[in-house]
Amino acid sequence: MRRTVSAVVFLSLALLTRAQESQTAYNFLRLPVSAHVAALGGENISITDNDATLIFHNPALINGVSDRTINLNYMTYMEGTKTASAAFIRAAGDRGTWGVTGQYMDYGSMKETTSDNQELGTFSARDIAIGGTFAYALTNTLSGAVTAKVISSKIAGYSSLAVGVDIGANYYDEARALSISAVARNLGGQVKAYDDTFERIPFDLQVGVSKRLANAPLRFSATLSRLTDWEESFGRHLAMGVDILLSETIYIAAGYNFRRAHQMTISDAEGDSAHGAGLSLGAGLQLERFKLNIGYGKYHVSAGSLLINVAYTL
Question: What is the pLDDT of residue 27?
Answer without folding.
Answer: 92
